[in-house]
Amino acid sequence: MRPWSALRLTMPRGAIPLGLILATAGAAAKLMTLVADRLGHATTLCLFKLTTGCPCMTCGGTRALNHLLGLDLAGAIAMNPLATLAMLGLIPWAAADALLLLRGRALAMDVSDGLASLLRPLVVLVVFMNWGYLVAVGR
Fold it and tell me: Would you give the distance in Å from CA 109 to the centre of its chain?
């Protein structure tokens, strides 16, 4: 198997525009924080943190989004490094999905079984390392 065929982007007809959906959810989160700020309410409500006293795996994600929208990359990374990197990757994916939606298509990623078996433990490790960072800095 050629290495470049282990991961490929496809544009199947009728695929769910996941990038566009996630970008819309991010825009809704930003809108909710703007409304909450105007009303003088706290913009964070994490049930996991309220219950356990520890930050959840995504704590700081909304604040990271706010920093990114203000073009403050360093502030976004400080809030939640993994969420920031995910959001930066989401921008081109959402833009591609928006363009492809006009043709009834969406961007999809095919990963070979071999690559997937390597990526799964790596993703779990990165998620837990990010969570450890969030706990260490008291997010």
Answer: 16
Distance, CA of 49 to CA of 70 (rounded, Å)? 26
Main-chain phi, psi angles of 55, to 5 degrees = -70, 150
Q: Which residue has the tokens 């943190």?
A: 49
Q: What is the pTM of this model?
A: 0.71
Count Cβ atoms below 10 Å from residue 22 Cβ, excluding itself: 16
Which amino acid is it at 131?
W
Residue found under tokens 């909304």: 62
Helix (H) or strand (E) holding 111: strand 108-111
Low-confidence ranges of the chain (pLDDT < 50): 1, 3-4
Beta strands 108-111 and 7-10, pairing class = antiparallel
